[in-house]
Structure formats: structure tokens, C-alpha cells
Design a protein that fits this description.
By secondary structure, the protein is of the alpha/beta class. It folds into 2 domains: 137 residues, 3-Layer(aba) Sandwich (Creatine Amidinohydrolase, Chain A, domain 1), CATH 3.40.350.10; 108 residues, Alpha-Beta Complex (Creatine Amidinohydrolase), CATH 3.90.230. It contains 8 helices and 12 strands. It has a 6-stranded mixed β-sheet, with helices on both faces. It has a 3-stranded antiparallel β-sheet with strand order 7-10-11, with helices on one face. A 3-stranded antiparallel β-sheet has the order 8-9-12. The longest helix is centred in the middle third of the chain and has 23 residues. 27% of the residues are buried. It comes from bioreactor metagenome. Pfam families: Peptidase_M24 (PF00557).
Length: 282
């Protein structure tokens, strides 16, 4: 993997890449135990910037040398790498001992801090936006990655099935969503891909304009469709499960609708040709 990453760095005419806590950090380090997802909350489509100072940095130069700078409490995560201990108010001093080039690729996380700090290290350094530099490599998962993702998908199936078997008339949408979270916590899941949704929609009680409004105080009654959007995270990988379940005896046209939807999905999947089918063709 590192060999392919280095080729990307060389192809972009970069001397190295510097990433704060992020998916790129995880990909280069190979560390799935470092729990960065909740310590760097400016990683979702540029909408969050609550974390601007990094607690960990990874620098990989074009020769393939990886150096990690982190606060003391994180060092045990990176035993396979060369680590410099530093503090969040001293990262720039430590970076000056690590950066060995003039064209440095950087990512989205802590972007403004990294740009400013590298200029303090060396005013002649040029920063190049490289958030997506390894994107096409990350698309193709290794057999080990696929196995982890498969296990997590099976866990998500089991979690939703557990809730479905324990649905009770009168429980609220909030109750159902909390049950999904509690199931994950009870079974040692590290975190959630996103807050789970179990959206209640009872037939004949809403207009088309209200189709995507899901009051969490809604109570479950027969004739309710439950739109599940659930994801768990473990060892650096996420599941994302979306299905709709009908509570109570479904009318015939609902049963036929579900069957048609499933048939359409199966037909689509059967037409996918690896390395050939474009997403726009689906």
C-alpha cells in the first residue's frame, strides 16, 4: 500500500504529505485503533470547524519515511512508527525538526492551522491541497478490509433485527433510536457512523410535504413504516444500513411494493461488472 501512496506523492511533485487526524492519517499509518473521529470534527463536507488544533500529525516524505507527532496520551497507538512527543501548543516547534521539503500536500482537517504553521516553520514552503490524493487507492479494499467491513455489516443486520423483534406499540421513535445505540454499546462497538434514525411514518397521517419530517416523539402504531438509517463504526471502518420495515399487518399493495423494490435492487446488483460499471449506470 505504501508503495502506491508514494507513487501518488511523486506524481503530484510533492516532497511529502502532512495530515492531521483524518482518514488519510489512518490510511497511511495503518492504525485503526486510534479513535480520531470525535477529536477532529471539521471532517464532514467542510461544515464543522470546532477542532482547529491537531492532537496528532502524520508526515510522510517522498522517500516513504513516516513520522507521527502526537500528544503523550496517544503515543501507544503508534508503536510501529517513529513518534515525536509534543503538545498542541508546541507542534510547530516539533514540525520544524520533521519537515524536509518545500512542496507539502495537506488535507482538509486542521487545514488553516497547518498552512499557517508550515509558513512559520519555513516561509518558502508551498502547501498543496491533497485531501483526495489517495482517493482512488482507498476505493479498492484489500481482502482484510473487506472482511472487517463484512463483519460490521453482519453486526448491523443483527442490531436492526434485534430491534425489530422487540418493537412495541406505543414506543417512540426516540426509544427505537436509543435502543439501536444501546445495542452497539452493549456489544462493544467503538462508535457510530452517524446518529441512527428510525423514522416513523404512519399511513394516512402526513402530507407529501412532510415526507422527510420525523418527530422523535412519534409513537409506534400498526400501519407505521419505519425508515432505518443505521451505521456502526469499529476498528476504523463504518457500516451504513438503510431499510424500511412495516409495523403491523401490511396491505397487499404494500407487500407488492416491497417485493418490487427488492426485485429491482437484486436486478441492479446482478448487472454490476467490477471495474467496468459506472455509478451513473445504476
Amino acid at each position: 500500500m505504501l508503495k502506491n501512496c508514494l507513487q501518488k506523492i511523486i506524481d503530484q511533485n510533492l516532497d511529502g504529505v502532512l495530515f492531521a487526524s483524518s482518514a488519510n492519517f489512518q490510511y497511511l499509518s495503518g492504525c485503526t485503533s486510534y479513535f480520531w473521529q470525535r477529536s477532529c470534527m471539521n471532517n464532514i463536507a467542510g461544515q464543522f470547524t470546532s477542532k482547529i488544533n491537531p492532537e496528532a500529525l502524520l508526515y510522510c516524505n517522498k522517500a516513504g519515511k513516516i513520522t507521527i507527532i502526537c500528544i503523550p496520551t496517544l503515543q501507544h497507538f503508534f508503536k510501529e512508527h517513529h513518534v515525536f512527543i509534543s503538545y498542541m501548543d508546541q507542534m510547530e516547534d516539533t514540525l520544524s525538526q520533521v519537515i524536509d521539503g518545500k512542496r507539502i500536500g495537506i488535507g482538509f482537517d486542521c487545514k488553516e492551522w497547518i498552512e499557517t504553521t508550515l509558513k512559520e516553520v519555513d516561509p518558502t514552503i508551498e502547501t498543496i491541497y491533497a485531501e483526495n490524493i489517495f482517493e482512488d487507492l482507498r476505493y479498492i479494499k484489500s481482502p482484510e478490509e473487506i472482511e472487517k467491513m463484512r463483519e460490521l455489516a453482519e453486526f448491523t443486520d443483527a442490531a436492526v433485527l434485534h430491534l425489530v423483534k422487540n418493537l412495541k406499540e406505543g414506543m417512540t421513535q426516540f426509544d427505537a433510536e436509543q435502543a439501536l445505540m444501546q445495542y452497539g454499546l452493549d456489544h462493544g462497538i467503538q462508535d457510530f457512523s452517524f446518529p441512527p434514525t428510525a423514522g416513523f411514518k404512519t399511513r394516512g397521517t402526513f402530507t407529501t410535504e412532510e415526507n422527510y419530517i420525523f418527530p422523535r416523539t412519534s409513537k409506534l402504531v400498526p400501519g407505521t413504516a419505519i425508515a432505518f438509517d443505521v451505521g456502526y463504526m469499529n476498528q476504523g471502518y463504518c457500516s451504513d444500513w438503510g431499510r424500511t420495515v412495516y409495523f403491523g399487518k401490511a396491505p397487499e399493495y404494500i407487500v407488492k411494493g416491497y417485493a418490487a423494490l427488492q426485485a429491482g435492487q437484486v436486478a441492479m446488483v446482478n448487472q454490476i461488472i467490477p471495474y467496468k460499471t459506472n455509478i451513473n449506470e445504476l
